[in-house]
Amino acid sequence: MKKSLKRASLLFSTALMLGAQVPTLVSAQEVNPEGFPIVDEPITLSLLAPGTGMAEWKDMPTLQYYSELTNINFEYTTPPLSDFSTRFNLTFASGDLPDIIYAPGSDVMTPALEVDYGSQGLLLPLNDLIAEYAPNLSAILEERPDILQSITTTDGNIYTLPHINVGDTASWIRGPIWINGEWMEALGIEEVPTTTDELYEMLVRFRDEDPNGNGQQDEIPLTDVKMDSTRPWLLSAFGIKEWGIEEHDGVVRYAPMTENYRGYLEYMNKLYSEGLLDKEVFSQADEQKKAKGQNDQLGMFPDWFSFFTTGQTEEESIINPMFGPLTSEYSEEPLFPMNPGISRGAFAITKDNPNPAAAMRWVDYFYSAEGHELLNRGPAGFLWDWVDEEGGEREYAQDLEATDREEYRGQITPGYGITTPELSGVDLPQIGDVAESDFQIFLREETEAKINAHGEVAYPLVYLTPEEQAIVSSIAVDLQTHIRNSEAQFITGQIELNDENWNKYVETIEKMGVEEFVQVYQAAYDRWAAAGAE
Amino acid sequence: MEKLSTNMGSETSTLTQRSSAKDRLKKIASSWQLYVLILPAFIYFIVFHYGPMYGVQIAFKNYMPSLGIWGSPWVGFAHFKRFFDSYYFWELIRNTVGISLYSLIVGFPLPIILALALNEVKDGPFKKTVQTITYAPHFISVVVIVGMVIAFLSPSSGILNNALQFLGFESKAYMEDPAWFKTIYVLSGVWQSTGWSSVIYMAALSGIDPQLHEAATIDGASRLQRLWNINLPYLMPTMIILLIMNFGSVMSVGHEKVLLMQNPLNMPSSNIIATFTYQQGLLDAQFSYAAAIGLFNSAINAVLLLFVNKISKKVSETSLF
Amino acid sequence: MSSVAVIKKSTIKESKTDRIFLAIIYAMLIFALVIVAYPLIYIASASVSDPSVVNSGEMWLWPKEVTFEGYTTILRNKDIWRGYINTVVYTVVGTSVNLFVTIPAGYVLSRKDFPLKGIFTRMMVITMFISGGMIPSYILVNNLGLTNSMWALILPGAASVYNIVVTRTFFQSSIPDELTEAAIMDGASNFKIFSAVVLPLSKPIVAVMALFYGVGHWNQYFEALLYIDDRSKYPLQMVLREILVLQDLSSNPSTMMSEATAEYLNQQQNLSAIIKYGVMIVATLPIIMVYPFLQKYFVKGVMLGSLKG
Predict the structure, then answer these.
(1) Is the per-residue pLDDT at C213 higher than 60?
(2) ipTM computed for the complex
(3) Is the minimum CB–CB distance between B70 and chain A shorter than 8 Å?
(4) What is the CATH number of the domain that holds A308?
(5) Is the terminal CB of chain B with fewer CB neighbours within 10 Å at N or C?
(6) Partner-chain residue, chosen from C142, C255, C264, that has the shortest CB–CB distance to A169
């Protein structure tokens, strides 16, 4: 690569000028242990990240500002997010590595790949770098040992940094289920259901009593697209936290073969056959669901925020309560799945990086509240500006419409839509006189009451050894296909849920090798737990 | 011209040795120009296809980027075995081949029929319109097509079911029925590609000498007879070659469209090799495993192609090689 | 006298069966036209209708609740225009390279007297089945220094076996051996034969190949994803893909998003339906318009004049 040649010669000549003996390894510039700039002489590193197409990274004020502050310049390569994975893997395959990989996310830089590339020496171990050059991150890791456990791979090395979320919705595993508040009011239902029987009754009333008041029986009490969004919340009513591998009290099991799961299938089959679950649940696309929502046909539905489906305004949607955990004969205590609040694979340093220390210091800033603010809002003078710098008063840019703010934000900072290495969700200083909106308060309260109060992480984020990964890879896809197909077949009644068919279903799972599968995850869990006990 | 060719015969017979040697020399000498004409293609295949071909060995190795292709360890047929042992192996093969053959049976004749039909129409705005419109669907992205298919077939809001209900029939969730999946896939594919595929045949038909048709008309042949005896045989070589090449891609049903149309209820019919490979790839980017599956597909494709090519050689004059 | 009577009788007979036949043909074509045109009209209408009426099935033929928001969003993107220009350049240059490689090769392979015909065909067909895969190709293109240039999009796809074979078949059917032999007799060199005899007769196949390859270049996305880093060099499909990426994001909000981002993306997603259709029209309308121009080369008897000459 011509770039590295140029850099090498620059460092070489610098070393000569300083009268140093030229070592076989070109030594990197000294890094300032704290404060800015990070290096005294400007350096240039190469960076690979997924692009969202909002703007060129080299033109983003946030990055330009930060480059000036730190003296670290970058050559950005940003293939489109949708196909980033292909480019990412080819980069490793061809050996043409960038210095930093930024925000690939754990879908692209999967835990398996971390172990793979890390053990092959393509990614630098970050443990020492964190200890020496990342004070912000180190402080967080001390407070939250579970994070440390989840980013340390099987050989004891840390190869990527996480995105850490401590905000109000950090505990969400996905969009919650919302209940149509207007319908509840129309039918005089005051409380959200707390048991599976109560839910059933509510859904029946939704179906029969014309809560949308149009004289037609066009209500769809519960809907989803392929069950993916409602399933996690409904499974918990049967004591299951995850549609697959989950841990209860230190024991790891495969939920889709348990009696609890059978209870779930029976319940859902009842809902489906009685017209309480949308008949099109397995074949419709998101667009059809949204159309039904905007037509006020939906009683209960999953989405990030309820107004996304209903088309109400943010304020109006406060009337729709969040669905809460249910109890049933299979699960007497309310239980809800919870997100551990971290996302892995947000940042990695590759083996050819000429100045890893500088790279670590560069990223560490974003784990502080200040750094997070910079990444989230950009520097002063763009999205927002100072009214009174001393007093810390800020206001939004005057010539920007409130509705255009988010789009503009996406153009000035990379912290938009990708898994950035940062600490997010901390309270940011207020801009202007807009305090917390009613909606934000509503969100927080609902989350606290329904999710945080009874939330449990289904299974921690772990790493598998290559041998374990090989075992998992060989059966994971087949297992998934089988349980996915079977769920649909049992719920719709395409296959009757009797003893014979249930046993056949479980037998197939066993034949696929689920026992080994569970053993692998049990071992991984034990390792994770043990690391935390230290 | 006819006169010339008969002359040619008599001349060579009288000027035997001297002229045949001269001819042979001339042939080789002029041949070099043919080599030059084909040189760009030759260089292209060598550089861009044979050059990288060493990558095939990935299918037999455990590829590790840090070791490169040459340095990665051999595992022989391990990846193939793993694929064969997969629980859904036979279902994948069945569905993949099923979709291909179904597409072939329905989709192969239609472009020919369209081209022949259009050929009968005199040139003018109608012909131009039909040609342009039928070829337009080829350009529609698969995402839009599947989106439309799902919308049209929706039991509650799709036009097909609305029409059925209007006529007194029950609405049906076609997308959820494995029995209908392949039909929906093939028909939407036919809709999309027939016009485009007929272009080759249209171009071929334009090469027919109109005198042949004039002569036939005078002899009293009807349009249908002329089509059957002149046009169709003229298209034969093209048809056969395309058919042979289509057999060479039976295993290669792409993942994009099927993935968009797949749902848990129609999986028994929509689970194909390509979507399986894609899902594996999402799990972890195992180049080696994907390469092995790809090689397996290619092997089957090659066998099929050779087989059909051989049959074609016996049955007709046309063959791929 | 009797021949006149015969002719008259046969012309009447042929008129009737022929008319029925023609009527059937027209009926078939009109049927095909309607079936094909309907979804096309649907797409055009959907691209200017409010997404909710599209998704609920209310809009089924003509636009309802017309809105041009989809188009304004798309066309507001400055990169689109650059994408258009880039794509036009890549297509013109690329197609020229394709024709330069494919047509001569197809011709040479059609010559019965070309000694290496069988070997070369086999060599080509092998490449259809055995391929090194993405990794060595990626490395090769890098090593050749083609990265981030138009040539990375053009050279690796300079010819396709399928197209060369089709070209060969065309020449086999439409260049009679006598023609070639006569020219050889006249002392023409192979170059001369190719340029003076074959090329004038190859208008239909050149048109078809230009269409096939041209469309391939126009729709090209994957190679650009791999090899083009400079956004200023992005072809149209890459730019459009980026617009659709935002739709991807919006249908999959992740836990790290703030409320504001999720809301913004939700807004975007509402547009996604019409943007999807609008994008498609923006991308393909130009290329669809090209076809009528190429059509004239498929006209019956286009070869007539050339043959006689």
Answers:
(1) yes
(2) 0.85
(3) no
(4) 3.40.190.10
(5) N
(6) C255
